[in-house]
Amino acid sequence: MKRIIYLFVSVALMVACTSEPHFVVKGNIEGSDSVTFMLLSRESGKIVSLDSAISDKGIFKMSGTIEYPYMVFLIASNTMNRAQFFLENSEITITGKLDSLSDAKISGSKTQDEYQSLIDAKKTLGNKFMSIMDEFQVARQENNSEKVAQLQKELIDLENEINQIDKDFVKNNPSSYVTPSILASMSLGMEANEIEAAINALDISVAKVPVIQELKTKASAMKAVSVGQKAPDFTSNDVNGNPVSLSSKIGTKLLLVDFWAAWCGPCRGENPNVVKVYNEFHKKGFDVFGVSLDREKEEWVKAIADDKLTWTHVSDLQYWNSAAAKLYAVNLIPANFLLDETGTIIARNLRGDDLFNKINEVLGKK
């Protein structure tokens, strides 16, 4: 009797092990005989291999298990061909052609279906946006300022419509594993309280994924550099390799902590506005502390000279790993923080006329 019970338990355990949730990816890719396919994911900025397989007349199979659905890449080795989709613990079929792998049909993933529905909802607006963008570039090359202004307004309106679709998706799909990716993208233009409110509305299981945990950390960091807070101090090297602290610059009536980079087009486009304000109000107590997210010192120094940025500049040349950028929760540049003489943040992300008007409001009559 004991042997029968032991055998029953053993069989039950075997069944339990084989029934553990797992994924199976079956591929049928035309023109891919003897091609190695790799299933990759990106985790904490690193590429992780989940599985690989060699196709036999276009047929291949991969398997494994994951904790929750997330975006992965199917890459055909030695080519530039790839497809991206949401992987989950289910049987997923990928059908297509090697030379157009990005257009492959993905079936069997509920999360991928949700993502595809979002893509389809934005497709018409996205195509219209790209068409107007082409017109915008032509108008700018022809120096047609009236046309540029008109098209720019149309682009902004379209962008707002596309963003609204994303916002509606996040609001209406709190239990979708697509939502964290969309929310992470949206967070670039959100305040800390908005990010926290969006996170609090998510299903508990979805709120546990690493992307959401990172957003929680980001929101906390953003609160520390919100208007009314004391600006956190940091030290970085200037163009001559000498360490300069932010606190050493505080004391002037107004100090703009300006995050930028030589490689950043919008930053270079905004620099003339900052120069204009600096030249107008520097003698009245306005100063700038430039913090670069560059990697190459030569490019950084050249951009400072080319754009005539005559104030103090620092950088650790760590690109998006810039310690100062992380401290200030900067994930998009240009970004800036306006400090009063006590080092308190009184405004954020002022550009163009908004920057001039704010400085003029404080210093114009002095």
Topology (elements, then pairings):
Elements: H1 2-18, E1 23-30, E2 36-43, E3 46-54, E4 59-64, E5 70-76, E6 82-87, E7 91-97, E8 105-107, H2 110-141, H3 145-172, H4 179-186, H5 192-200, H6 204-207, H7 210-224, E9 235-237, E10 243-245, E11 254-260, H8 265-281, E12 286-292, H9 297-306, E13 312-314, H10 323-327, E14 335-340, E15 345-348, H11 352-363
Parallel strand pairs: 1-7, 11-12, 12-13
Antiparallel strand pairs: 1-4, 2-3, 2-5, 5-6, 7-8, 9-10, 11-14, 14-15
Helix pairs in contact: 2-3, 3-4, 5-7, 8-11
Radius of gyration: 26 Å
Structural class: alpha+beta
Give the low-confidence spans: 1-18
CATH class categorisation of the largest domain: Alpha Beta
Number of strands: 15
Care to describe what's here?
It is a single chain. Helix 2 runs antiparallel to helix 3 (145-172), helix 3 packs antiparallel against helix 4 and helix 5 runs antiparallel to helix 7 (210-224). This protein folds into three domains: 21-108, Immunoglobulin-like (Sandwich); 112-224, no CATH class; 235-363, Glutaredoxin, CATH 3.40.30. It is an alpha+beta fold. The strands form four sheets. Strands 13-12-11-14-15 form a five-stranded mixed sheet, covered by helices on one side. It has a four-stranded mixed sheet with strand order 4-1-7-8. It has a four-stranded antiparallel sheet with strand order 3-2-5-6. The protein is 43% helix and 24% strand. Residues 1-18 have low confidence and may be disordered. It has eleven helices and 15 strands. The protein has helices spanning 2-18, 110-141, 145-172, 179-186, 192-200, 204-207, 210-224, 265-281, 297-306, 323-327, 352-363, and strands at 23-30, 36-43, 46-54, 59-64, 70-76, 82-87, 91-97, 105-107, 235-237, 243-245, 254-260, 286-292, 312-314, 335-340, 345-348. The relative contact order is 0.08.
